[in-house]
Design brief:
single chain, 475 residues, alpha+beta, 4-stranded antiparallel β-sheet, 29 strands, 19% helix, extended
């Protein structure tokens, strides 16, 4: 069995035990029925080539790692040893269960050598069967996002260089990076991956590369640095004795020096300090870095630009004003002609639009601000009734108005198609009813337009989305 220990205040608090994996039946029969050492080793080597070394028990793996002259003594000394196949953990992460809060319940996500992703229950610390995912290769690193009870995504890098997205019940391959990955950081719409070719790569959620950076040395780990009080997301990359901090756009923000080669880093809360970084070096020592509250994360200029140009010389405002004045004085005639040219073009476009409005009789009217139109569809079909209400919200009366209905003959027949509106007094509402009949065989729906007209002038247009018609069952 494999044990995951949970510590609180640097002391063991709880442990979760993963059940062992089943032993291959062929391997079990080989250990019980072998006649010679050579025959047993040949069967185990065939199983290793077919299913991989991780599919064998620890006893078989140890036997195959020994020389031919040591195997017989090992078998005699471990005849009674039970075959066990442990579920080895390759990576782990955490996932919030129901709320995005600091003290909310958190599920532990484990990646195993058996090519599986396992989510542990936050209270019983047992694997949740419905959340178990089977991958095509061994997972290397995991980055989580979302909530387990609602929707979540497990961004996982595999040992063969593939990047996959895992959700509840299914796994989707995103891209093949071509190189083995060291770590992955999943942001809102970006995925940042550190590869073993000393590069830092950023992809969007569709798998398209956004940018790529070359690091000066081999990368040991990558970690997300999130400053919630400043609403800032960054990425920390450990390389040798230096931790480089980059923005999500690939800009270098800061460098943190250490006395030894960095093995791994973790950013989070330590005690009352919200922004702390724990650093574990290759020598086994632990260092704690606390972020200053006055820290400035302004992108640093590249070293090449600093060595060549030094400080950028920005001219003063007075010199800019003088240069602009001289340019206007020398090119005054050309600038005036350009201004007049664009002014005439604007006047010409305005005149053309006015001609089109006059030709279509779409003269703007103030009646739109004084009359309100409402419509209600009654019935299930194929015969409907449309009740139209016209309301006068002004202090003046309106005369000569009419309601005109426009429709598609393939869908409906409307009667009456025109309704005369009598005198509309201030602060009063008149309601009218017209009959609409659906003429399609399958009861498909369309729109009916209600147009308020005054003579030949269109004043107001309302579009009514008709519901699908319930066709008659008996003729």
């Amino acid at each position: 069995m494999l044990t995951v220990k949970e510590c609180q205040n640097l002391r063991p608090f709880f442990r979760a035990v993963l059940p062992p994996l089943p032993v291959n039946a062929t391997e079990r029969d080989a250990w019980g029925q072998y006649t010679s050492v050579e025959e047993l080793c040949e069967i185990l080597q065939n199983l290793q080539m077919e299913h991989g070394i991780s599919s064998l028990s620890l006893k078989s793996q140890h036997l195959l790692s020994l020389g031919s002259h040591e195997r017989l003594s090992f078998i005699n000394a471990n005849k009674t040893m039970t075959l066990q196949r442990k579920n080895l953990i390759t990576c782990m992460s955490t996932l919030k269960k129901a709320r995005q809060e600091e003290m909310a319940l958190t599920c532990l996500v484990l990646g195993t050598e058996n090519k599986e992703l396992i989510v542990l229950h936050p209270e019983t610390f047992t694997p949740i069967d419905e959340a178990k995912l089977t991958l095509t290769d061994v997972p290397v690193s995991i980055s989580t996002s979302g909530l387990f009870d609602i929707d979540y995504t497990l961004t996982t890098t595999l040992r063969n260089g593939h990047l996959v997205l895992g959700r509840r019940g299914w796994v989707s391959p995103l891209l093949n990076m071509g190189k083995p990955a060291i770590g992955v950081v999943c942001l809102d719409t970006q995925i940042i991956v550190a590869l073993m070719d000393s590069t830092l790569n950023c992809f969007n959620d569709k798998g398209r590369r956004l940018w790529r950076l070359e690091i000066s040395g081999p990368i040991s780990c990558v970690e997300r640095i999130q400053l919630k009080n400043k609403n800032l997301d960054m990425v920390g990359v450990a390389c040798g004795q230096t931790i480089y901090i980059y923005s999500v756009a690939g800009e270098l923000l800061d460098q943190v020096k250490c006395i030894e080669n960095v093995s791994t880093i973790y950013f989070g809360q330590y005690g009352r300090e919200m922004n702390s970084m724990a650093v574990i070096t290759a020598g086994g020592s632990i260092h704690l870095k606390i972020l200053k509250r006055t820290a400035d994360f302004t992108p640093q200029l590249p070293s090449e630009a600093k060595s060549i140009g030094g400080k950028i010389q920005i001219p003063k405002k007075t010199k800019l004003f003088v240069d602009q004045t001289m340019r206007e004085r020398e090119n005054s005639i050309a600038m005036h002609r350009t201004f007049q040219k664009y002014l005439f073009h604007q006047k010409l476009d305005t005149a053309r639009q006015l001609v089109q409005v006059l030709a279509k009789k779409q003269i703007p009217s103030t009646l739109n601000d004084t009359v309100k139109l409402s419509a209600q569809v009654l019935g299930l079909g194929p015969t409907f009734k449309i009740q139209v209400g016209i309301y006068n919200i002004s202090s003046d009366a309106h005369t000569g108005l009419g309601l005109f209905f426009h429709w598609d003959d393939k869908f409906y027949q409307v009667h009456p198609a025109y309704i005369h509106v009598p005198l509309l007094t201030p602060s009063s509402e008149l309601k009218f009813v017209t009959k609409v009949e659906c003429v399609t065989a399958n009861g498909m729906a369309d729109v009916v337009k209600v147009i308020v007209v005054k003579g030949t002038q269109t004043l107001l247009v309302a579009i009514i989305n008709m519901p699908p018609s319930e066709m008659t069952l008996f003729e």
